Amino acid sequence: MDNDVTASSTTRNRQGRRRRNLLIGLGAAAVVGIAVVVGATLQNFTAGTSGALGARACPGINVTTLLPSIAPVPEVDWSNCNLVTARLSGAYLSMANLNGASLQGADLTGATLAYANLSGANLTGANLSGANLTGVNLTGTNLSGAILTGVRSGGIETMENQLVGTMPASWKLFMGYLMGPGANLTGAYLGFDLSGVNLTGANLTGANLIGARGLALTGVNLSGANLSGAIGVFLTNTTCPNGTSSNQFPNCTRQGGGL
């Protein structure tokens, strides 16, 4: 009988140890599983997001399509990233941090960069045709050879002597505006001395030119512009404020342009 009791006790002890080992094993597996899920979530968050809500993550640039591996979004943080020749046409990058980014030869046609930080960025040879650069920070930015046709601006936070390299031919940064051939100055306030500024082909629709001086405009659209009190006006092949041509009415003087 004592042998039976001993055997029964031994069996119960073995079963108890098995249950404890099983529970310990299940607990360890659960901990590992949670760690894997959390780790994967954090990895996906870091790799897939950037900007205000995530850590900075520089995208790779596909060698065939030139598209970035991370979609451009407002407030993205791509500071000091290599974005050379990246295809970012039409990208919505308002308030993005592109401080120190390498954007040589990048395609930014029609991109929205309003209030973005482009300080110290290299935009040599970049195509910014039709881009919105309103309120951007261009301190120390290199725009040498950049294409700026149709660019919108105003409220730019730097002075021309703070730019690295040179501006594109015939372009100037003046009173917060990028001014040059084909600039989009729709609705801009330009009541200051514009002597020496090349605005050939620029769009000044609805612009306020009250008291502007040194206006020598060729091929410009002045539809709806206010030219009251403008001084030293020379218009060639220009659309007058009421839509007529300066070729028919020199300097728009017969069309109520206020000149």
UniProtKB/TrEMBL annotation:
Pfam families linked to this entry: Pentapeptide (PF00805)
Entries under SUPFAM superfamilies matching the protein: Pentapeptide repeat-like
Transmembrane regions: 21-42
Signal peptide from the UniProt entry: none
Keyword terms, alphabetized: Membrane, Transmembrane, Transmembrane helix
InterPro entries found in the cross-reference section: 5peptide_repeat, Pentapeptide-BTB/POZ_domain
Protein name per Swiss-Prot or TrEMBL: Unannotated protein
